[in-house]
Write a structure and sequence with these properties.
By secondary structure, the protein is of the alpha+beta class. Helices cover about 35% and strands about 30% of the residues. A hairpin with a 4-residue loop joins strand 2 and strand 3. The two termini are about 25 Å apart.
Length: about 170
Amino acid sequence: MDFIFKRVEIKDKNIVLNLFKETAEKINKLNVDHWQYWKNPAQEQINWVMDGIQNKEFFFIYDLQEEEWFGMVRILKEDLMYWGKQDEKAIYVHSLVVKEKYNGKGIGIKILAKIASNAKNDHCKYLRLDADSKNPKLCSYYEKIGFKKVGVKALSLSAFNLYEKAL
């Protein structure tokens, strides 16, 4: 699959919020208590999305062959909320979601590999992300594809495992 990252614009806010809601519903069907706040997001979550869009950090993942977007990701150069101030140059991944019909096809690995390649070309030392500790399947997935758990960050919504992969 050949895909690109297309920057999300302000006009796309409701698409982003709906994608979060659809993903929360999909996760709920798996009996995982993760991201359920996206079903009816508080103003704090909506502001987080708006900040990310305004800071040009949200991207749709666009399938060039099918000519449609099939996912979304937030890519940051700094993540003070989860990681605090860091000395090493890194790229931080948040909110990687893929539409349900694309699940189970290895696309998440390809997306993370493309982000890692871009980060390495930008002289980053690490690719970093977090996963809700209440979602052991997701945590295990990241560990299986080479991410190392390096800490835990407790926030009001949950406790999040912090993962990094050396580039």
